[in-house]
Amino acid sequence: MKTIAIYHNKGGVGKTTIAINLAASLQKQGHKILLIDLDSQANSTFATGLMKFLFVEDDDLRDRNVSHVIESGDYDFIPDVVRKTDGFNHPEIDVIPSHINLIQKQSKLNQVASYKTRLVTKLKRVEEDYDIVIIDTPPSRDIYTEIALYAADYLIIPSDLKPFANQGLPTVLEFISQIDEFRALIGKNNLEILGILPSKISTNSKFLNYVFPKQKESLLNSHNLPIMNSIIFERTVLSQCTNQTITMGDLEIPDPKSVLEFAPDSPAAMEFVQLTEEVLEKLGK
Amino acid sequence: MKTIAIYHNKGGVGKTTIAINLAASLQKQGHKILLIDLDSQANSTFATGLMKFLFVEDDDLRDRNVSHVIESGDYDFIPDVVRKTDGFNHPEIDVIPSHINLIQKQSKLNQVASYKTRLVTKLKRVEEDYDIVIIDTPPSRDIYTEIALYAADYLIIPSDLKPFANQGLPTVLEFISQIDEFRALIGKNNLEILGILPSKISTNSKFLNYVFPKQKESLLNSHNLPIMNSIIFERTVLSQCTNQTITMGDLEIPDPKSVLEFAPDSPAAMEFVQLTEEVLEKLGK
Predict the structure, then answer these.
(1) What span, in angstroms and rounded, lies between the C-alpha atoms of A51 and A40?
(2) At residue B253, does pLDDT exceed 90?
(3) Is A178 on the interface with B (CB under 8 A)?
(4) Of the candidates B201, B221, B173, B219, which has an alpha carbon nearest to the alpha carbon of residue B268?
(5) Which of B55, B175, B210 is the mutation pick for testing A, counting most A CBs within 10 A?
(6) For residue B14, which phi and psi values (nearest 5 degrees)?
(7) What is the ipTM metric for this complex?
(8) InterPro entries per the record (chains A, B) (predicted)?
(9) Cβ-contact A52, A253 below 8 angstroms
(10) What is the dotted CATH code of the domain comprising B2-280?
(11) Omega into A91 within 30° of 0, i.e. cis?
């Protein structure tokens, strides 16, 4: 089992889009995937169709989500909290959902060091059940990011290559070196950076010919980081498939799809297939 | 001078859209406005046209942004760091921009209590220069939110009224009561909550007739909070005006507009005019 965290401290660079569609594409290719949402904003939870309720009283995520994995002392807890996506992708994916309550639990979790490594221990117990675990993270430097980066073996850093994403990288790297210090102590190798993944890249030809190469060059000049070959372009279909709904009586219910399910022949779907191949190759699979 | 913070810990509920367009509408009505971006993701800075650069070396925000207001011991510092928006709105607005570097500075700022109240003191020195100050905040509970909520007199809580926004409210209220405790110590009144502002509300008639009233009712039943009369609907034009660009040679440069500038006769613009009237009335202006 290999575990990949998707992280950048710059928000809005496509972390969730990448996490959910990479998971979907890997699952379609026959790999057994677990997707973990560690962001209190729960975008991956929504985008994989686990938030089909419109009213607080129908919220079935409150009592069974990723915060319970961290809080519970039961090491065989993951199977209890996993749920299958519902109409998002065929085959469906196993997901550990997040919840807005993670914000409230943050100060409690910060008090005890063992909370930070519970996910590491618990993932070991499901090693036989999954081939690849993908973890979506918050665009910040909080305890949930820390938990994700202890649990992961590999890191993908999505970036739109714009100045702020580039200037956020020294903070990401400083964070990773602190993470690696503690990983050594718990007998884990350094986090392996699969690379910066260019994401939300404009398809405008002037941009691609002039701005994009310059932004890539500026990135290479300022940081000693690999850039992945795959590119995730900014495409309307990627938001369309997340915004799908179904009408049930008087209600319009969220019914998101993976891009591979919604528009399998689209350029966006092809780009995710290419990313999947690159990831599998880098993981030696 | 009255200061309004726009805050909710649930992200994606329209904080930035509300901050920038409320500021624009107030400025158009002849009020002297200062907009402060206290979110490291710098969405308000981008959406008011202060991020017109595409490459790191052209970044003119790095050395003069809101983090310097907090760090500097010079109490007459605000005029040095303010800049006018550029094509965003007529008349243009004074903005204190943010920067991704705020993430890196967070641990330094957390060490000294006086950083948390610098904005309070510095805003007093520009009391004659502005009628209304609007502060955009991060969707979290970090030092920048704390700084914003000490500096503000009033609070608007944008909410899409969905379950997670509703369930995030107890954490918001707990935070505010801690904020008020310290405000009392520095001689400030409790933060006055202008209300929950329904935001990103679907215009679908079934939704408006059935789901929206139930969500409002659920909110009223669970929290003793006023709901504002204004409603900001989810409208395509609101993202269109932020995504405007101009072509300059080989480059496509961001050139965002306020909705009042871009589509003054649109329903969205009208909704912001109505919000402006409600806010002015509640501020006794």
Answers:
(1) 13
(2) yes
(3) no
(4) B201
(5) B55
(6) 100, 15
(7) 0.94
(8) AAA_dom, DNA_Partitioning_ATPase, P-loop_NTPase
(9) yes
(10) 3.40.50.300
(11) yes
Contact A103 B250 (CB under 8 A): no
Look at residue A79 in the predicted model and tell me its pLDDT: 95
Pick from A256, A40, A55: which is nearest to B160 by CA?
Answer: A55
Which residue from B101, B207, B251 is facing A167, i.e. has the nearest CB? B101
Q: CB–CB of B250 and A204 under 8 A? A: no
**Tokens representing B8?**
């909710």
pLDDT tens digits along A107-147: 899 988 899 999 999 999 999 999 999 999 999 989 999 99
- How close is the nearest chain A Cα to the Cα of B168, in Å? 6
- Domains of chain A, by residue range, sit at 2-282
CB B206 within 8 A of CB A252: yes
The residue type found at A215 is: Q
Report the gap between the CA of A250 and the closest CA in chain B (Å).
Answer: 6
For chain B, the first-to-last Cα distance in angstroms comes to 11
Rounded to whole angstroms, the Cα distance separating A274 from B94 reads: 46
Asked if B167 lies within 8 A of A56 by C-beta distance, the reply is: yes
Distance from CA of A266 to the nearest CA of B (A): 23
Q: Give the number of other CB atoms < 10 A from CB of residue B107.
A: 10
Q: Which helix (H) or strand (E) holds B248?
A: strand B245-248
